[in-house]
Amino acid sequence: MSRRGTMQMTKLLVGQTRQRLFSTATSKNVSSGTKFAPNVSGQRFTNHGILGSAPIFEGRYWSTVASEVSREGKTVQPPKVEYSGEDDHQGGGKTVAISSYWGVAPRKISKEDGSPWRWNSFRPWETYTADTSIDVKKHHKADTFMDKFAYWTVQTLKYPTYLFFQRRHICHAMLLETVAAVPGMVGGMLLHAKSLRRFEHSGGWIKALLEEAENERMHLMTFLELSQPQWYERALVFAVQGVFFNAYFVAYVVSPKLAHRIVGYLEEEAVNSYTEFLIDLEKGLVENQPAPAIAIDYWRLPPDATLKDVVTVIRADEAHHRDLNHFASDIQCQGHELKEYPAPIGYH
After folding, report:
1. Of 261, 347, 270, nearest to 314 (Cα)?
2. What is the pLDDT of residues 289-304, one digit of tens each?
3. Cβ(322)–Cβ(138) under 8 Å?
4. What is the set of domains in the chain, with CATH numbers?
5. 178 vs 8, residue with greater confidence
6. Strands 81-87, 94-98: parallel, antiparallel or unpaired by DSSP?
7. Alpha-carbon distance 324 to 267, whole Å?
8. What is the distance between the alpha carbons of residues 59 and 24, in angstroms, rounded to a whole number?
9. Nearest residue to 176 via CA among 155, 159, 161, 156
10. Which pLDDT band, with edges at 50, 70 and 90, does 322 fall under?
């Protein structure tokens, strides 16, 4: 094809697609010869000989929605802000606090004594009193090959952590909680996807597993108030969580009953670890310091609660997670699906 024929073909194609390439406002500006504001790339890209000096890339930058708003004279109102009396040390001005979310005022929540509720991570109706009467010595006997495999997997994994942390219970608990909070989230996520694929209810198990994950995370937030991990402990958590998350994800996809059994035995070891923590607190080997404020509000503990009270309720939570996961594994080992049995929702 000759060069002249190529140019004519190009003109025809551009003429047909011009309305799609440019918004209404842009087309008007092109026809009137007005120039645009600075473009995306910082340089002017033009198509000389076809549309004159019309900037192609600038035309694509302006959307049809923007042109409609400009034609009708509508403007988008930003969120309402209010200035507090405190100085902004970084910018040198007043600090800006967002007072509403597109017209929705934030909720003002108070405690029973009238003081403001200081926690955004959980609300008063999400708090509870732990059932400390739960049996903390219960053990699921490993009879089948699957149970023995799950049991000895957990036993093999626990010894390196015991050797690393020794009697540093708080640091050990922080590592334990970063791992223990993974299975509930992974299991709840996969059950959620399964429920969507099959167009069916989950029997409450999605919520139960997500409650477990959130409860374990609150354990971690509590211990962070008592001690900050060192850089090498953070590095260890980063590595262990990355490996465990992916390994547990694969295990749950392959065999959910095995995955729940592993978590059941993992929670048994968590109960044992917190029992040793309590023994050292009673012996005076660990300081029985006042309980953090977040723990007092989350577990509805008395104002004078101590670390021993916190460890006691956390151990009860772990015992409940132990029973929940063993129960889930038993259901599936008997050939049933989780949705056939009501999930233990609201118990920690």
Report:
1. 270
2. 999 999 999 999 999 9
3. yes
4. 3-72 (no CATH), 145-340 (1.20.1260.140)
5. 178
6. antiparallel
7. 10
8. 10
9. 161
10. very high
